[in-house]
Amino acid sequence: MGMNEATTSQIYDLWSRIYDRTFGALVDHRYHRALEQMQLKSGDRVLDIGVGTGLMLRRYRQDVTVVGIDLSAGMLAKAARKCREDHLSHCQLVRGDAMMPPFPDRTFDHVMVSHALTVVSDPARLLHWAGRLVKPGGRIVLSNHFQSTYRVIASLEKLLNPLFMKIGWRSDLALEDVLDGVDLEVDYSFRLQLLDVWQIVVLRRATPPSIKNQANIEPTVTGTPLAMGSH
Ligand SMILES: C[S@@+](CC[C@H](N)C(=O)[O-])C[C@H]1O[C@@H](n2cnc3c(N)ncnc32)[C@H](O)[C@@H]1O
């Protein structure tokens, strides 16, 4: 039994009433660090998946376009209010399922997935779509809790998972499992503190094996751009 979009939407409609004062306040200082990793430049288009109450929106520079997608009408209503009150005319909000995104491939320069990967029923599918929607060379930035690599802690996270699922997220998702079979690779990742349970992970579209092999076989060929755009 995993996450389920219909229930999740209802749970987050409830969360929306207290989100900014509770979980949002707890992770607030992470938004800036996650955003930094995108290295945004003027004119970029960003997709913010599971934008929630829009706590991240105020932090995007005003010369980029941000599209925030979310399932929950309650969370989006809070985000819309922030957009109105803070005149965030560069931000647009869309109600929808990020696993069936209503955008053509390669629409966005970068994709943000902040505390949303462990909330969806099929995280690999979400990442698959993120990879399709991002332009060649774009970054997919995850800010999330992943299952610990320490066995004792991982067992505890598995044990507590049914409880966490009732309040809207799972605690047993391992990063390597979700990346298995997805055409993305970890560029780098870090924690804000040594004993942090959350991580910031930067993903890029995986380099096709043929190109990797070619690079190994013909090391003297330089200056040839990697065909990042090929699907
Ligand atoms: C924990 S909140 C994170 C909100 C925000 N990104 C943040 O970091 O504060 C997770 C959000 O993901 C949304 N969500 C869950 N499943 C989704 C889906 N399939 N498609 C789009 N949004 C989804 C929820 O409605 C909720 O607003």
Task: Summarize the structure in words.
The chain is an alpha/beta fold. 34% of the residues lie in helices and 18% in strands. It has helices at residues 5-15, 23-36, 73-85, 123-133, 151-166, 175-179, 209-217; strands spanning 45-49, 65-70, 91-95, 110-114, 140-145, 184-190, 198-205. The chain has a seven-stranded mixed sheet with strand order 3-2-1-4-5-7-6, with helices on both faces. The longest helix is centred in the C-terminal third of the chain and has 16 residues, at 151-166. The chain is globular. It starts with a helix and ends in a 14-residue tail after the last helix. Bound molecules: S-adenosylmethionine. S-adenosylmethionine (SAM) binds at residues 5, 8, 12, 24, 50-52, 55, 69-72, 75, 97-99, 114-116, 119-120.
